[in-house]
Design goal:
Elements (H helix, E strand, L loop, with lengths): L8 E5 L4 H12 L3 E6 L3 H15 L5 E5 L5 H14 L7 E4 L20 H24 L8 E6 L11 H21 L5 E7 L5 H4 L4 H11 L8 H11 L11 E4 L7
Parallel strand pairs: 1-2, 1-4, 2-3, 4-5, 5-6, 6-7
């Protein structure tokens, strides 16, 4: 059954920029209350505070927390706060949009650093494994209930390779595997879990990838729409897919790329 989102709650992990921020804005316009977790310096915190007030301008509650979303202590501290803020209503939508990882090559050229075990573990823990830990704790706390939707942001890099993207590619592949397993285990509870595979999207995290300008130009030429994916495209997909109590669309990697991979 199609339902209204107004009055429900959304938790966005990685809420201060890129797709996470766009999703939070879109859902706030739809009347969804926002819980945002981000990990920023002073400048980023100021931007997050501005975004929070803009969301509140739509008449919803918006609460942002500057904390390491990959930390067990953060979950331990924030889950009781989330329960209090939602008034026991639970979280209807969870968005995992954490983009923090190393871009070092596995085997560096002469004079170039190579990826270390610590950097590999950190990248997978933040960008992939943290989805599992947040979902576990939210479910155990009773904050994920029938009709809830969990989304993880992936990319074509989960199945393709490019220079400097090895650890992130591994994280995206692991993330998609986690989505499938969570979908299997949460199906009896009526909770849907999906990965959204955005096309090449201009975000702060993309700009850190060496050669991102060439990647963007190539993707723009290939895309049937002759433009790059925008964070707002992904935000609209989350809004659309969340308007049902059904959990029958689950365990998928859903392309939100304007047909970029078709060509």
């Amino acid at each position: 059954m199609i339902t209204r989102l107004e009055g429900s709650w959304c938790l966005v992990l990685g809420a201060s920029s890129g797709m996470g921020l766009a999703i939070a804005h879109e859902l706030a316009r739809e009347g969804v209350h926002i819980l945002g977790v981000h990990f920023d310096t002073t400048d980023g915190q100021e931007k997050a505070a501005v975004a929070r007030e803009e969301m509140r301008g739509h008449g919803v509650d918006a609460h942002f927390f500057n904390a390491n979303a990959a930390s067990a202590r953060t979950r331990e501290e924030l889950l009781p706060r989330f329960e209090e803020l939602t008034g026991g209503a639970g979280v209807r939508i969870v968005v995992h949009s954490l983009a923090f990882g190393t871009l070092l090559p596995y085997v560096g050229a002469e004079g170039e650093d190579s990826l270390t075990a610590r950097q590999m573990n950190m990248t997978l823990d933040v960008m992939a494994h943290s989805l599992v830990y947040w979902t576990q704790d939210l479910f155990t706390a009773g904050l994920l209930r029938q009709g809830a939707k969990v989304y993880a942001m992936t990319s074509a890099g989960g199945a393709r390779v490019m220079p400097h993207y090895g650890a992130v590619s591994a994280a995206k592949a692991a993330l998609e595997s986690h989505v499938r397993q969570l979908a299997l285990e949460l199906a009896p509870s009526g909770i849907a879990v999906n990965a959204l595979r955005a096309g090449v999207t201009p975000t702060p995290s993309m700009e850190r990838i060496p050669g991102s300008d060439r990647l963007a130009a190539h993707a723009r030429d290939l895309n049937p729409h002759r433009r790059l994916t925008r964070p707002e495209d992904v935000a609209e997909a989350v809004s659309l897919l969340s308007r049902t109590d059904s959990s029958w669309i689950t365990g998928n990697v859903i392309g939100v790329d304007g047909g970029e991979l078709l060509t």
